[in-house]
Amino acid sequence: MNLLNFTTPFPDEQSCKLKWKEMRDKAGVVCPHCGGTAHYWKSDKECYECKKCKYRQSLRCNTIMHMSKLPFRYWFVAFRLLTSTKKSFSAKELQRQLGHKNYDAIWALLHKLRMAMGTRDARYTLSGVLELDEGFFSTETQEEEKQQPLKRGRGSQKKSKVLVMAERRNAARK
Ligand SMILES: [Zn+2]
After folding, report:
1. 0.85 exceeded by pTM
2. I need a labelling partner for 139 at 20 to 30 A (CA). Which of 27, 28, 87, 133 fits?
3. Residue of 3, 8, 13 whose CA lies nearest to 77
4. Based on the number of CB atoms within 10 Å of its own CB, is 138 exposed (0-12), middle (13-18) or buried (19 or more)?
């Protein structure tokens, strides 16, 4: 496995975005404002709009990529690397492969992915192909934040923590 193999199914940023949207649709998009689950897709702005309250959220909103400015493709590449090899690789190495100038951003990306996958890796170790499942993409906001009324519009998402839903029954794995 190498990075070149990876590029076939997702050759560019747009194809990664489309895949990401497909996975989010499958997982079910939830409105952080009213909890509504029915959304319009605004293709011009690349965001979801809640049918009930009109709240808009981006493709990245409330997922592991929340607030990230890195390309979707970086996430896909890193995810692929993490799931297809048991060997660990450093943020430095990934940074070098991607040719990205900001080490901290790459480190944070890797850290988030590792945390998200921490309880799930057993599922992925045998996967020879890129496996992206809805559990990986779904996130939830913290309970206390759900109770606070969220302001509409820009900035209202800033406080929501990105938590990837991970099954807790993996205690049995040990
Ligand atoms: Zn809503």
Report:
1. no
2. 87
3. 3
4. buried
Q: Greater confidence, 26 or 150?
A: 26
Cα–ligand 1 centroid distance for 30 (angstroms): 8
Cα of 1 to ligand 1 centre, how many Å? 42
Cα–Cα dist 159/117, whole Å: 23
Closest C-alpha to 165, from 122, 120, 125, 126: 120
Contact 163, 140 (CB under 8 A): yes
pLDDT digits (tens, 9 = 90+) for 52-111: 999 999 998 878 888 889 999 898 888 777 766 666 778 998 899 889 999 999 999 988
Distance 53 CA to ligand 1 centre (A): 4
Please give the Cα distance from 77 to 97 (Å, whole number).
10
